[in-house]
Every structure is written in structure tokens, then in C-alpha cells.
Amino acid sequence: MSQLKGFNSMFRLDGKVALVTGGSRGLGLHAATAFLLAGAKLVIISARKNAGEEGIDQAVEKLNKLGVSGKAIGIAANVADTDDIQRLVGEVKKHSDTLDILVCNAGATWGGPFEPTPDSSSKKVLDLNVRGVFNLARLFTPLLEKSGTPQDPSRIIIVSSTAGITVPHVGDHGTIMYSVSKAAAHHMSRQLAVELGPRNITTNTVAPGFFPSKLARGLIDILGGEQELSDANPRKRLGEPEDIAGVMVYLASRAASYVNGEDISVDGGVRFAQGRQSKL
Ligand SMILES: NC(=O)c1ccc[n+]([C@@H]2O[C@H](COP(=O)([O-])OP(=O)(O)OC[C@H]3O[C@@H](n4cnc5c(N)ncnc54)[C@H](OP(=O)(O)O)[C@@H]3O)[C@@H](O)[C@H]2O)c1
Fold this sequence. Notes:
oxidoreductase activity, alpha/beta, NAD(P)-binding protein, SDR_fam, binds NADP nicotinamide-adenine-dinucleotide phosphate, NAD(P)-bd_dom_sf
């Protein structure tokens, strides 16, 4: 038998403070929910809109009804805008002078035919998915560095996409700049792993396949709908909230302390099936 120190708390997040961008709905809200259920003391969610069915306020209300001791708060910010990220840092500091977990999840997509691509669409996608993620990591590093230790470093988790690994959509509904932005996110996590690892901050990437959400809805419909995409997936379904929850809690927990610069795809393995010759 080997001595595994603190195994019972290895997958727990007790006492941790997390910030999840794009936490008002979709994958970000799944991650925020999981962090609170795993014991986090404070989960801060951020998005642009406070009000409405998909705004921050309704999400905070739901999170604070989970029946756990941890609390959720919301802070509106546009994380494609560097000044607003700087303001977000200041707002977070009013609640906590350290940060254990930063999830750079807010993302934008754009699809359309190649030649007429408006330049504004590339700017929108790159500003949020690449420049925004870089500036979040850069500007939150002082807070992350304060809480990281050699045995339990602080975590940056970047939400990318399997579109950053494969070439999933070309032609009328091509998503070239989205794919490129997500490939950049993968490499950013490798760069940050080496840059920030010595400062007790690890960085990893989660690359989801299709999860029903506002962002994915249009593309799922264009590709034939949830049933058709499920049939084509080796696991015979699309992603579910628990699939994101599991990988997020793992990467944020002490269990992943020595994992740095990796990307974990959460797609049921479908990216490997794309070149197959026959239907499964
Ligand atoms: N769902 C999928 O199938 C899938 C697959 C692969 C990768 N992903 C990635 O997963 C991440 C989350 O996507 P999702 O599917 O959960 O999307 P979603 O349901 O549309 O949620 C997007 C979230 O980001 C926020 N947001 C958007 N632009 C923002 C900005 N400029 N500043 C701050 N917050 C912003 C939105 O709130 P506001 O609109 O109020 O700002 C919302 O909270 C994205 O990075 C996406 O690329 C998703």
C-alpha cells in the first residue's frame, strides 16, 4: 500500500475562490455549479448582461439556492475589453484578495462563407477568444499567485473547443477564425504553463465537442440536429452538464496539481471518428 496524502479531499474545492467568465449560462454555469457543489467558498460569475432570462442575476439566484455553504456573486464585464478586465480585477478584489481558480470560458463564434467574411467578425472572435483570454490570465496573475502553493497551485482553465484541433466546418457555414482562435487558446495554455508554472499557477485547456447551448444551437441545427449528431458520436449522445462538471472539478482540484499545459477534449471521442469510412 502507498501513502496517499489527503486522498479524501483530493477532488474537493473546499475554501476555494473561483471566477468563471461567461458564467451566466451554458458551460460556464455548469462549471460554476460544480465548483460550489465541490465545496468552493466563493464563485464569482461574470458576463456582459445582468438582467434577463440569460443574465447574471438569474444565474446567481439559482447558484445561491444549491443548499451549500459557498456563495455565488455576479460581476458584469466585457472580457473582450482590456479596460473592463482591469475593472473586473478591481471588483473581484473588493470580495477577495486572492483567487484560486480562473476559468476563461466566455467565447464568441461566427460562421459563414469564406470570401465574404466581414473583418468585424474576425475581430470579435479574436478579441474575446484570444486577446481576452490572454489579458484575463495576465491581469489576474497577481491574485492567482497569492494563493498558489507548490503542492496546490492556483489554476487557469481555458475553455477552447475541439474545433481548435480539427477542421470541422468549411464552406457556407465555415468557422475558420473560430477554429483558429481556439487553436490559439490551446497554445496559450502551453505558453502560460511554462510562464506561470514557477509562480505556482497551472494552466490547462478544456476542449468541448457539442453541448446544447445558445452558442452551439445554430450550428447543431444546421448539421442536422441533436439526434443526428448523437448518432454520429461514438458515445451516442451530445455533451451534458455533468461531463463539463467532472473535468472542471478535476482540473481545479488537488488531483490535477501536476497537470500543466494539457488539453482535455470532452467530445465522446467524435473527433477521432470524423475520418471513418463507414457509419458506426
Ligand atoms: N456549447 C458547445 O457546444 C461548445 C463547444 C465547444 C466550445 N464551446 C466553448 O465554450 C464556451 C462557452 O460556450 P457556451 O456554449 O456555454 O455559450 P453560451 O451558452 O452562449 O454562453 C456564453 C457566455 O459567455 C458570455 N459572454 C459572451 N461574450 C462575452 C463577452 N464579450 N464578455 C463577457 N462575457 C461574454 C455570455 O453572457 P453575455 O451574453 O451576457 O455576455 C454567456 O454567459 C465558449 O468559449 C465556446 O467557444 C462551446
